[in-house]
Amino acid sequence: MSESTQSKAVVNDTLIEARPAPSSATGPLRWLQDNLFGGWGNTLLTLLSLWLIWLVLPGALQWSLIDAVWTGGSDACRANPDGACWPFITQRWDQFLYGFYEESERWRVNLVLAGLFAGIAWLVWERAPARNLVGLFMLFGFPLLAYLFLYGVPALGLPVVSTDQWGGFMLTLVIALTGIVVSLPLGVVLALGRRSQMPVVRSLCIIFIEFWRGVPLITVLFMASVMFPLFLPDGVTVDQLLRAMVGVSLFASAYMAEVVRGGLQAISKGQYEGASSLGLGYWQSMRLVILPQALKIVIPGIVNTFIGLFKDTTLVLIIGLLDLLGMVQSALADAQWSIRSVPYTGYVFVGFVFWCSCYGMAIYSRRLEEKLNTGHSK
Amino acid sequence: MNTVTPSAASDEVAIAISGMNKWYGQFHVLRDINLSVRRGERIVVCGPSGSGKSTMIRCINRLEEHQEGSIRVNGIELNNDLKNIDAIRRDVGMCFQHFNLFPHLTVLENCTLAPLWVRRISRQEAEATAMKYLERVKIPEQANKYPGQLSGGQQQRVAIARSLCMNPKIMLFDEPTSALDPEMIKEVLDVMVELADEGMTMICVTHEMGFARTVADRVIFMDAGQIIEENDPESFFNNPQSERTQLFLSQILEH
Ligand SMILES: Nc1ncnc2c1ncn2[C@@H]1O[C@H](COP(=O)(O)OP(=O)(O)OP(=O)(O)O)[C@@H](O)[C@H]1O
Ligand SMILES: [Mg+2]
Hints:
- The complex is a heterodimer of chains A (378) and B (255).
- Chain A is mainly alpha-helical.
- Chain A is built from 15 helices and no strands.
- Chain A has helices spanning 27-35, 39-66, 74-79, 86-98, 106-124, 131-151, 168-194, 199-214, 217-227, 240-265, 269-277, 282-297, 299-312, 324-332, 341-373.
- With 255 residues, chain B is of the alpha/beta class.
- Chain B has 9 helices and 10 strands.
- In chain B, strand 9 and strand 10 (226-231) form a beta hairpin.
- In chain B, helix 3 (107-119) packs across helix 4.
- The two termini of chain B are 19 Å apart.
- Residues 53-54, 174-175 of chain B line the site of magnesium ion.
């Protein structure tokens, strides 16, 4: 277009070539400036954090790695009480893992653990075949099989290992995984029930949820272990571990129900109507339309509940079940290991194991969220 | 807009509403509604906001429950019998103002969900039907996208295709274009006109008066929960009888 002095029209018809961003807009220096030293407040926080890290980290590394005792036995630790005493862990490793499970039968635990991890890996690996089937099996078939296998079936040549011999990390996993496997479906059912139109169903669900939420887990465990037998006829006993598992599972279900209900409430009425207008029934709408969306929204809450549940299993210690923490605790009572550094080492070890397990769950939940979010976010 | 062949409405009654009343608590929202729709007939419902248009058509597939009077759809009485409700919903499709697509499913999955689970047809057949209707609404290439990746007009067309996949005998539309930008309204109306052309029994709540003029066999004007006036579009627009209709038309045709 020709330049015109009269008209006020502005015309730019030359194409401007794309240029790379100037180096001051990218690169590590820019990142530092943006994230750590942008403004005096940010800079102050960065320096404060660095100072705190400087205070804690060298000491922690010194104690746990550099000054630590790695080989030998209790004598080596006694000679050097200023560093971590790792032989305490390695020598007691089997007990921490299996509790008092019959030594000759520990291969059964290993096999179940191997099956568990294989199943989890299968589900985490996105391109594995038949993931739905494996998922269903891991949810319903595997726990039962694992229990039978661990407990023993004399008819099949597997001698019984009674549950009071179970202990250590294995027991932690048994209780936590039972809780996880039971609490999610039960929580979903309770959440649906609490939103039901039927007054009886709704009231029952509300009472159930509020009861379990209102009572501390310790109380639940005490009740399960002390009071529950009072209600049973003479001669009938229910396994202590089973009672604890039921208590923990119901407790977690109540929390799960409220998390799921939060998700259900976030789904608009239009989704229910869209499903109804197509002729989908109540359960079909829930399963195919509402729950997939609601559960996706509350993945952080669900995993949060799982993590809480996982850590709360340590409370079974007070009704005499020796989970990982319980095993370490009882090993500390051994006079041979009454050395200053040993309790620290034991608790650091327990903390580290729990932290790894929980952080693993957290990472998986984040990946799951990202994966489910692609495509239909707007 | 294309012209539409006059409807070949038969004498068979598709929807018969008589003496229907509905209350929300103490609020009398639908008052003595009488309406009979023949198979193949195309009805446009209009009226001011809050007059009960949505409530009325939502009673036809039991998204809302009426308290008095009777509704018969395809000869089936709507009552508390769940079997009847299911049977009616299978044959009555509905499109909403806000589409109500399922955001966690792709367009194709949205379209095959109900045929698979309600009609229980094979996946192959369901997908073939879905593609047929997606082609009909002119978006077969979007089949594997998620609703959130489509424009409003495209989403509404998917919603129409999704309903059609159930082979409904009757289609209900509740202001299908009022959440859309002007340039998208036409693409949705075109699909609806085509549908009318093929002889679908339709009830549309809409304020698209051009659509009403070309497509409708009858226009119904509602106010305060009542059907105030009911006439063929010619007479309705050129010679409205009731004062309230005249006022409404003057307001709506002003701009
Ligand atoms: N769930 C409900 N509970 C109570 N009142 C309601 C409910 N749904 C609708 N109403 C009322 O019923 C009346 C009719 O509502 P309806 O949605 O049928 O109107 P409409 O004609 O479709 O209006 P619009 O053009 O705004 O969509 C309104 O006054 C509304 O406030
Ligand atoms: Mg409305």
